[in-house]
Amino acid sequence: MTDQTPTNDSAPAEAQSVPQPAARQVGYAVIGLGELTLEELLPAWAVGKRSRLAAVVSDDHDKALRAARAYGLTEADAYSYDTFEELQSRPDVQAVYIVLPNSLHREYTERAARIGKHVLCEKPLAGSVEDAEAMVAACRDAGVKLMTAYRCQYTPLHWRARDLVQGGDLGDVKLIHSVNVQVEPDDGQWRLNRELAGGGSLLDVGLYSLNTIRFLLGTEPTSLWAQTHSTPGDSRFGEVEESVTWVMTFPGGVTAQCSCSYGAAHARTLDVYGSEGRLQLDPAFDYTNLNLRVHTPQAITEHRLKETDQFALEIDHFSACIQEGGEPFTPGEEGLQDQRLMDAIYHSARTGQTVTLDPVPGTDAFRGPLPARTPDARD
Question: Which residues are bridge partners to 29 per DSSP?
Fold first, then answer.
């Protein structure tokens, strides 16, 4: 039997309120006009409640000008990488959203901090632990906020899954299995360049599995083991790894097995196996059409929630933190922790050894205060 049952789920409330007047909304400059920005982020600002697009920054002036005009801005709101610091004189720009290759995240975070702008940075936080540490320090020293753009920690469906996992609806959690794979074309993509990306599929798609499992459990792994593989002779993977498989052990004996790849056909799944039921997210990490089912001996229950723009949710959460003086739920420290764990995964893959991790007490140890939550509309 399959039930389609409305739930008592809720999501971060910052993007569910009545839109604020434009003059009160937090103004953003988006840095980088690649596919993600043009197809997902710019439309998100158009539906945000606390946030508005105030400027664009690109090395392509014509592209910047087209994007600015398409969203009601003027030529004066289109900046280049060389003129970025001129944003310091724009009090209507309180924050930047960095959407650049991983190796550039540190540079633009530090530049933004120096001119007093808060920073929302696309994941992964950086291309290395060293860069991530420097970004956290730069923002702390400048007195500006740094948030890692983990959209899956702001969607209603992922919060419902977290509530089910942590609320005991599945009984005692025993096993978790997650797969995130896609075929990355060899078309000059920066993600296949180690200098720009810092790594391969792990830093890009594998990070979703790593971060979402940590979010669902609220705890940190105590050990991990990993291996990597790249198809011999495939020119795409001369610098970065094609596939990674790793196993993490969490407090209480929970074991999570994850796989990611740039060479396998699209799949994004996450399954949590408990003593009394199974939770299935499939797809688990897409921008739209997320699907959550819970399997128990009595029924298969499909949890349906009204779809909300994931990027608008995360951006409006950051805006609320800026307006109200709070700390982001996914601060720079959350991104730094994932960077350290990915470093440990690579170390295990190189050495073939299990890595024992320092114990981290408490729940949500690297996150800020829980976001305010209100009941979300239902399908």
Answer: 55, 96
Q: Read off the pLDDT of residues 118-160 as tens digits, 9 standing for 90 and up.
A: 999 999 999 999 999 999 999 999 999 999 999 999 999 999 9
Beta strands, E only, 58-165: 78-79, 95-98, 118-122, 146-149
Q: Give the active site residue among 49, 117, 123, 145.
A: 123
Measured CA to CA, the distance from residue 130 to residue 134 in angstroms comes to: 6
CA distance 84 to 102: 18
Are the CB atoms for 329 and 368 separated by under 8 Å? yes
Given 208, 262, 273, 346, the catalytic residue = 208
Tokens linked to 167: 């609320």
pLDDT digits (tens, 9 = 90+) for 2-33: 444 434 445 565 544 689 999 999 999 999 99
154 an active-site residue?
A: no
**Per-residue b or e along 346-357, where b marks 16 or more CB atoms closer than 10 Å to that residue's CB:** bebbeeeeebee
Crossing angle for the helix pair 332-351 and 129-142, to the nearest 10 degrees: 170
Instruction: Clarify whether 208 is annotated catalytic.
Output: yes
Angle at 77 between CA 71 and CA 81, to 5 degrees: 115
Task: Give the C-alpha distances (Å, rounded to integers) separating 355 from 116, 223, 242, 258.
Answer: 39, 5, 22, 16
Q: What is the 3-state composition of the chain as percent helix, strand, coil, each rounded to the nearest 5?
A: 35, 25, 35
Which positions ≥6 away from 215 have C-beta within 8 Å?
150, 152, 153, 158, 162
